[in-house]
Amino acid sequence: MSDGVYAALARPQILTNCNAAIFVNSQDVLVVDAHSKPSAAAALIAQIKKEITTKPVRYLVNTHFHWDHTQGDAAYKANGAKVDIIASGTTKRLMTQLSRNRLKESLDGVPKQIDDVQARLGKATSAADKERYTDLLRQLKAYQAEMNSYTLELPTITFAKSHVIKDPAGDLHIEFHGRAHTAGDVVVFSPQRRVVAAGDVIIGFLPNIADGYPRPWPATISSVGQLAFDHIIPGHGRVQHDRARMTQMRNYIEELTARVEEGKKVGKPLAELQQTLTMGSIKTMQDGGYGSYVAENLENFTVYLGQKTAVEDRLAANIEAIYKNLDRA
Ligand SMILES: [Zn+2]
Fold this sequence. Notes:
The protein has 329 residues and is an alpha/beta fold.
């Protein structure tokens, strides 16, 4: 992609992991985002050492507070060398307030997921399905076993707008461009290497708006788009080599927000909006094949066990989140 920059794309797991971006500096390494558990982060640290460089990981950026980007932080702290965790002040506050509870929610959901997968395994007929469900069970039990004890590591360097690390191999600008997926998302931009690691502000899936800000999010993407980069390493899904998918995502959030707002204004209930705002009726889903693009990313990078399709479920969740969060500013 660019000299000394690597994207580690997360394999599909029933408990989602984020992608990581790796920037090799002249003396050390900066990693963007830490997966959902320390063992996954430790595996990446070992892989960096084996396949990329023996320079130590000196910096870890948490792009936002979500569990699939921060729960592996402890592995970086346990790695021997000094490591600073960098995040916005808002992300540090949200981690302090919410991380333990979000972990608990994810653990509380596991027994039901185990039951679901167990039931599917019981009905599975092909060897491939049996193998698949057995592996999902293993993932769920491993998560439960590992995360029952957990040390929350908080960011050690925080900032409001921007934090710059100067380096002869390429500077790193860690920047807040406005509210989007959460109140405190940051991106990591290297002007010399023309790469931006965008966290979940820009992803290959449909956005996750549950903690998001539907009104300001499009402008935040536009602001990130002003940076001089050629490649985007998103928090989930494939690396992007132009601004087309980023723009489609931006326009989708804008259209869906406007249409949910319109419906809400005339008193339509959420369920009705979820019936009428469909893949086919949302214009920006068709633009440039955006809907097919996100479907392909979800197919390849997530585990879906629902009744419809992963995109349809996420669209319904987006409508609900916008309906609830419309007036967050
Ligand atoms: Zn994420």
